[in-house]
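ok here's the first one, seq then C-alpha cells
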Amino acid sequence: MPPVAATPMAFVRMLLHAYVRHGADPAAALAKAGIAAEQLGQPGAAITSHQLEVLAGTAMRELDDEALGWFSRRLPWGSYGMLARASLSAPNLGVALHRWCRHHGLLTRDVRLRLHVPTADTAVLTLTEHHDIGPAREFCLTTLLRNLHGVACWFVDSRIALQRVALPFPAPTHAAVYPVLFPGPVVFDAPSAALHLDARYLALPLRRDDQALDMMLSDALALIVRPYRRDRLLVQRVRSTLRAQPVGATAESLAEALNVSVRTLHRQLQEEGASLQGLKDEVRRSRAMDLLGRSQKPVKQVALAVGFGSEKSFARAFRQWTGESPTGYRSRVLLGP
C-alpha cells in the first residue's frame, strides 16, 4: 500500500524553528524529505510519517542537536542513544525507565522526566517543563513522549497500551492525528504532560542486547513512527478486565476497554496461545469456586453471579471444568480431606 500522508504540516513548521534558532537554512533538509516550500503554508496540508522521519533525522545531524532547538543547549547527535545504552542492562522495564529519566536530567534541566507508581494498577511517566520551549512546544512534548513510549516498547519487544495520555496544551486543529500517535485516550489542557500505563508492564524483562541496540540506533527515529502490534501483557489485561466485569463482558466491550480492535484482540490472544472464551471460562470457574468455597450462597445465586441463566446450565459447565458437581465441590472443600 502507498504511504498515507497523515502527519500534519504544523509539525514541520514547528520543527523548522530549530533552523531559525541555530541560524541555518532548512532548504536541503526539506528537499531530502520531499517537502516543497509552497506546501508549508497550505492549511490542512500533511506529509507521510516517513517524510517527517527523514526531515527530523537530517535536522538533528545538520544542527548536531537531537533536541531540535527546544532546550537552552544542544543535545549532540547520539545523546539519546547514550541514554538507551545506559538503560539496556536493567533487569526490567521499570528499572530501565527510572534510569532513562534520571540520565535525561543530566542532559538537560529544561524538562524533567519522572516515573512513579501511584497505585498498584497504574504507572505514570510525567514530563514537567522548567523552561519556555517556545513555538515548538507542542512538537517537543509530543515527540519526547512518543520517543519514551517507543523506546519502552522496544526494550520489552511489546506494544504497551496506554491508559491515558495527558497533554498540557489546547486541542490543536490537527487533534484527529493524536489517536494515531498514541495507543490510548488523549486528554488536552492537562496540568502537565504524562503517559499512564498498566504498572505490570514495569515488571517485564528487557529483551534486547548490545547488538540489537546497534541495529536500532541505525534507524532510531522509526521507534516514534512505527508502533508495535504484539502486547505481551494482553492475556493478563483481559483477565483483569474480566474479573472486574465477570458478567456480560463481550469481545466488543473488552476491545474498547483495552483500546484495541476486536480483530486485534482475537489475533493477539491467539498469538499468545489463548482464546477469549477460554479466558472467560477461566475467570468464571475461579469466581464460582471461590463463591462455593467461601460463602453460603445457594448454588442458584452462585450460578447467576458468574453469568449463568440457570442452575442446571451452571452445574453442567462446572462439572466440565472440575469433574464434579457444585454441591459436591462445596461439600469436599468445606469438610476438608
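and now the second one, same deal
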Amino acid sequence: MAFAQVIVAAMRRRGLDPAGALRQAQITPIQLQKVEARITALQMEWLSGAAMQALDDEALGAYSRRLPWGSYGMLARASLSASNLGVAVQRWCRHHGLLAEDLRLHLSVTGDTATLAIEERPHHLTLPGDAREFSLVHLLRNIHGLACWYVDSRIPLHEARFPFAAPAHAAAYVHMFPGLHRFDATQAEIRFDARYLRLPLVRDEAALRQMLQRALPLTVLQYRRDRLLVQQVRQVLTTQVGIALEADGIAAHLNLSARTLHRQLKEEGASLQQLKDEVRSARARELLHRSAKPVKQVAAAVGFRNEKSFIRAFRGWTGTSPAQFRRRLQE
C-alpha cells in the first residue's frame, strides 16, 4: 500500500483528484491509509495505469520532465531489432537517458555476472524518500520485465541492491526481486547471469503491439518461463533435495539424457560442477547473511562433510573466509 500512497501523492501534487483511479483499483480511502496493508498485482496494474493516463506521465511524477503516455512503448520498439538481449538492453538504457535526464542506466558485465545499475542525478535525489524508492523500484522492474519478455524467458536475479534503508514493507521485495537483497547500497542495481544477454530476441512487431495493449503486468508480475538450461539446473539443485544431485538424477528430472545435459550446458558456457558450486556459494552466503548459524552448521547445510573443506571452497568462491564475509556484512 505504500506504493499506492506514492502514486496518489503524485496525482495530488499535480492538482488531480485520485478518487477515480482509486475506485478503478478498488482501493477505498480507508484502505489507502493502512500502510501495512497489501494490494494485489491487478490492483497495482489498475492504479498505475489510471494514474499514468491522468498525469500523462509514465514516470508518475518522479522526473523533472514528464514521460508522456506511450514513452515506454516507444523505447521497447526502438530496441526490438537488436541482435540479442545485451544489445537491446544497452540501446534501451541509452534511449531512456535521452528522455529522462534524472537517471542514467548502465549495463556492465564482469565475468559471468551482468549488472544493470541506476545512476541518480541531483533532482532525483531530492525526491521524498518514499517517492524515490518507488521510482527506482518501478524502473528496475520495468527494464527487468521487458528484458524477460524480449527473450521469452524468466531472468532470475542473483541480487538486488537499493540505496536506501530497508523500508517497513521490505518483506514485499522478495516478490518483486526474488533473490538476495541489500539495502543502504551505493546505488540501485540488479545482478543476473550474463549468459542471458547472448539470447536472441524472439519478439516481432505484432507481438509488441499485442503486449502494449496490456504492458503493465511486465512491471508488476514476475515472468514465469525460463529458456536457459543453466537456470533449470540451478532450480533443481536448489529445490530438489530428495533426488540424486549427480548428472543422471538431474537429467532424469529434466527429461534429458546425461549426455544431452552436459552437451547443452557446454553450449551455454557452463558445467554441472560450476553450477553446483554457484548454488552452494549462493546458499552459503544467504545463510551467513540471514542467520546466526555457526560456520560448521552452514557447511553441513550446503553439503560439506567438514568445516575445513567448506572454508577452503568458500575462499575459492569469494576470496574471503566465511567469518570475514559475515563480519563485513555487519560493518
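notes on #2: The chain has four domains: 1-55, 61-220, 228-270, 277-331. The CA atoms of residues 167 and 305 lie 39 Å apart.
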